Amino acid sequence: MQPHSIDAWTHTHDYRTDAELQAERRTRWVVYLTLATMVVELIAGWLTGSMALLADGWHMGSHAAALGMSVIAYRFSRRWAGDDRFTFGTGKVPTLAGYTSSLLLGLGALWLFWESLTRFLQPITIQYSEAITVAILGLVVNVASAWILGGGSAHHHHGHDHDHHGQEHADAHQGHREYKDHNLRAAYLHVIADALTSVLAIGALSAGMLLGWAFLDPLMGIVGALLIGRWAYGLAKDSAQTLLDAEDHRTIASQIRAALETIDDVQIADLHLWRVGAASRACILSIVTHDPQSVEHYKRLLADIPGIDHLTLEVNQCQDAHCRNRD
Hints:
mainly alpha; Alpha-lytic protease prodomain-like; Alpha-Beta Plaits; 9 helices; 3 strands
């Protein structure tokens, strides 16, 4: 038998997916659309003297900046995927961007809440027709942006077939991977938050213009702020758990235990799982048995579990009869 090259046991830590590449392109198009809208509104506001258009134009600019951060995160992850300084790759960079976006979204909700509360205490004169026009324009742009982003959907196809330590994940199992792209979710929430604000504003402004219910404008602002704040909290919590390796992996862990501990005389002594990409996990596993088999034998038993792209397996031989006891 010919000796194997060391390359047969080495592997890349690039866990990017086709879905992430598509998400980067979609997010980039949304940034272009938002910037174009910003330019149109600023020019129109300057020509007509409309403060509402000027204000929304600058708002679109801040919106484009937040979305631009998502694009930068995707590019950074792609650019430095092979850098050895990132021990398990750059899979968490988009998650970090998603967490940062959640904080910006939360700050925006706080600002909206405070501004709306101030309007209750100090009402201002509203140019209803002009404000409704701006709100409708914003709604159209954000609905288009949400459509471009694909509804923030979670694609489950993994773009790279990794052969880690002899493991091959068949295409049939790729479709069952859990996919979490916090960066795309953050971008989607940004445009949905703006769309919600526009819908509430249109309803409140229309009622104010037709019925004289001026109080609805700040009231809907407060409702929108509370909803956006709730979304921001959910995104921050979910992305923080991934960043801190505190994600719930019980489903995958139970599949690993079912694959190994159903074998007589095999017990799992130590099991660690953490996410290293939108659809990829790393696993460190230590098993105890009286009659150890080869490492490749146990890895083949785990080959059908989707999403484990970096597996480190330790096999320990137990000489004590008590090792056979199961709790």
